[in-house]
Amino acid sequence: xxxxxxxxxxxxxxxxxxxxxxxxxxxxxxxxxxxxxxxxxxxxxxxxxxxxxxxxxxxxxxxxxxxxxxxxxxxxxxxxxxxxxxxxxxxxxxxxxxxxxxxxxxxxxxxxxxxxxxxxxxxxxxxxxxxxxxxxxxxxxxxxxxxxxxxxxxxxxxxxxxxxxxxxxxxxxxxxxxxxxxxxxxxxxxxxxxxxxxxxxxxxxxxxxxxxxxxxxxxxxxxxxxxxxxxxxxxxxxxxxxxxxxxxxxxxxxxxxxxxxxxxxxxxxxxxxxxxxxxxxxxxxxxxxxxxxxxxxxxxxxxxxxxxxxxxxxxxxxxxxxxxxxxxxx
Length: 330
Description:
D-Maltodextrin-Binding Protein, domain 2
């Protein structure tokens, strides 16, 4: 699960996100839509599988919040189309999911690159070890692959992320032609801004200090709110703060008339979606299926998928299968 780290780059906790995205019960499972399985239907293998079909039962793990279960169901649905009999099991926190993946109970997990990198780094080197995650996804992937045990492999990351971000009112952004944090920084030097976020933001390098150092931002005041949750969204919408800490894949942000600005100097760690798989599944139809999914998973698509589940209340299995159809993986 992505998090706002109490250390430096990655954040406090995703409790707010879990609530906002309708958390699923630990230990729940779903079929992942295996009605479309090549193995069960006798149909031809889709081209994205790489020309050959897989076989056997596999379990895709998920954390106990809906974005994770949705991604796991998308993975499972794609695997079913490539001949596997795939199911999804939501086990809870990373402290439970990661050991199950290492042990081989799970075949794959949709993960978050920067968060997993530092999770393993902390476990190996202590909670105060310097972060190995980076705002550059290529550098983060090098660090992650170096941290993973020999029986696990990181596949190709998606461009979609669930990471710390900063938002402003869309009307303000449009009126001042602001799309990036650099542009907001330039604006703030003549028009100091009010910043909203959790209390820890005032001391964390990815938050207020980082905004000042990296983007040269000037602030008139800091307003203590929550970690990317409804208090921050409401304060932004009502104009009580000019800029606030949010999460990049939260669908309620755009719905509230807010715009997430481009972190063009990569202050935030690169928490891109990435499939972590057992080494035996790192090639062939299994890897082809998950790489195909993540190649289609961009930021706007992820936000839209989360909206379908958490705001429109569409069934996760239907959203998963609909995504595959919409992007041509069916």
